[in-house]
């Protein structure tokens, strides 16, 4: 029993956090909330981050007073067991202030001529020239300086496809917190290879065949693989537009030599879509046109 063991100091009758106006989506704490100064301090020195707070302890919830609290940007940490997975660098957080744009990455980038290889656009058409680029935090962050102030909204990027991480994997647009323009080198027509093989000891080859069943309103992606060992690899399939992203939105049916992914496209509008498949550390991309 929670109350008998003093695990809930406020008692079951005091469970209302007293948000300011939850009906309107306003979740700062109102005066008298039992959540004020009732949280635990988080210190994450491995990310160079200490939790800021006022008072005797942090407030419970997403706000400290009227300010929304953010933890450190996401970073991929390799498994200590050595499980095989390679993180493709992606933009995990960004900040805009005056003429500066700060990008955080899930894996560190290697040095490059970012002023020439990154283009910044306002409202998809007006290009804003970059003055400088500074790679920081051991490659996990990039500070871009434009020649003029940046708008808080309507900013998008075009990224050269040769930008890559210290792990030699290319920068990808999955889960980016900032819009990536459709003309980006990373959004080009990249066909699935007929077969693929790499230095992975676990896999000899992979064959991928996407087809559209218009009568059933389905996109069917058939994957056939030749593994060295009889193990099962779980693929992650994404199907997205420029504005909407559906990650792992497929229903996989695993077979002895691979899998079949089915995506319901019956309610999707006509237009350009991007199919992505992450399997065994390898990313495949293809543009799909629904007409």
List keywords for this structure.
291 residues, mainly beta, Immunoglobulin-like, four-stranded antiparallel β-sheet, four-stranded mixed β-sheet, 1 helix, 22 strands, globular
**Could you name the CATH class of the largest domain?**
Mainly Beta
The domain count comes to 3
Terminal Cα separation, in Å?
60 Å
Q: Order of SSEs, N→C?
A: EEEEEEEEHEEEEEEEEEEEEEE
| Shape label | globular
CATH topology of the largest domain: Immunoglobulin-like
Rounded mean pLDDT score: 76
| Total of DSSP H or I helical runs spanning 4+ residues | 1
The largest pleated sheet is described as: 4 strands, antiparallel
Q: How would you characterize the overall build of this protein?
A:
The chain is mainly β. It has three domains: 72 residues, no CATH class; 97 residues, Immunoglobulin-like (Sandwich), CATH 2.60.40.1130; 88 residues, Immunoglobulins (Immunoglobulin-like, Sandwich). It contains one helix and 22 strands. The strands form seven sheets. The chain has a four-stranded antiparallel β-sheet with strand order 7-8-12-11. Strands 10-9-13-14 form a four-stranded mixed β-sheet. Strands 15-16-20-19 form a four-stranded antiparallel β-sheet, with no helix packed on it. The termini are far apart. The relative contact order is 0.10. About 9% of the residues have low confidence.
